[in-house]
Amino acid sequence: MKIDFHTHGKLSKKVDFSLDYFMNMVQAAKENHLDAIALTEHFNTHRFSDVYDTLDDHFPYVDLYYEIEGLKVFTGMEVDINETGHILLIGKRADLLDFRKELEPYTEKGNFIPFQELLKRTANVDFLVIGAHPYRESTPLHQLPSDLLAKLDAFDLNGKDLYEKGIEENCREVYALAEQIGIPVVGGSDTHQSLQYGAVVNILDVSCRTVRELKDAIRSGAYRVEISPQLDEKVAAAKELKKRLKEKMEKVM
């Protein structure tokens, strides 16, 4: 099974969720031969609930994912923490939405949930917990205490960072940190725009239907991360198109 663990369904936090835009993303994911994605929209995006309310209205939710035109869409979100960093949570829809309600007091910059508190609150919930882009300068997770980082399920080898830092450098630092901490590395395109799909993917040895199965595959090493030879072209094109689309939207607004 080919899966991307870090994707977004909106162009940016400020815009409304658009089913048409999201379906273009789904089509692009399928064109890049993905079997599944984790939809990890920012937890404090504008009208977060619209994302899953809209999907509920249009698509069946089977096992622990939405079935959308043959693509498995696992439910998730990207959470900011107080220490400056982003954590991906992927899990059962009901658990995810319940935890999102708990995070309501923590949605504003300067008042994000502390990392240790987030880990404590999610410890008994069946979430796949991934440390997003640990070496991004704006969200440097690698500086946090090792004993807390060790409670993550994996680190994110991120498409945007691979492009901006260079594949060799970013792979070296993320894999070295993972080895030091003792947890795996998984790939995520971090796409907000469809052209970025396929930049980095995970090839699982088995087809998973639940988050528990995903976690077992990652923990057992039954997968590999694959970086596209066209990563630079994909990310650069997506970045430029995203910029133009945002400028167009801002003029309308």
What does this structure look like?
This protein is of the alpha/beta class and 253 residues long. It has one domain (2-252): Metal-dependent hydrolases (TIM Barrel). It has nine helices and eleven strands. It has helices at 19-31, 48-58, 93-102, 115-122, 146-149, 159-165, 167-181, 211-219, 231-252; strands spanning 2-7, 36-42, 61-62, 65-68, 71-81, 85-90, 128-131, 154-158, 185-188, 200-204, 223-227. Strands 1, 2, 3, 4, 5, 6, 7, 8, 9, 10 and 11 form an eleven-stranded mixed beta sheet that branches. Helix 6 (159-165) packs across helix 9 (231-252). The longest helix has 22 residues, at 231-252.
> What is the top-level CATH class?
Alpha Beta
Number of strands: 11
- Structural class, judged by helices and strands? alpha/beta
The CATH architecture would be Alpha-Beta Barrel
Question: Mind summarizing the main beta sheet?
Answer: 11 strands, mixed
Give the percentage of residues in beta strands: 15-25%
Radius of gyration: 17 Å
CATH 4th-level superfamily: Metal-dependent hydrolases
Helix and strand run: EHEHEEEEHHEHEHHEEHEH
N-to-C CA distance: 40 Å
CATH fold-level label: TIM Barrel
Count of distinct structural domains: 1
Task: Provide the residue-averaged pLDDT.
Answer: 95
Tally of individual helices: 9
Helical coverage, percent range:
25-40%
Cα shape: globular
Q: Could you name the ranges where pLDDT drops below 50 across 5 or more consecutive residues?
A: none
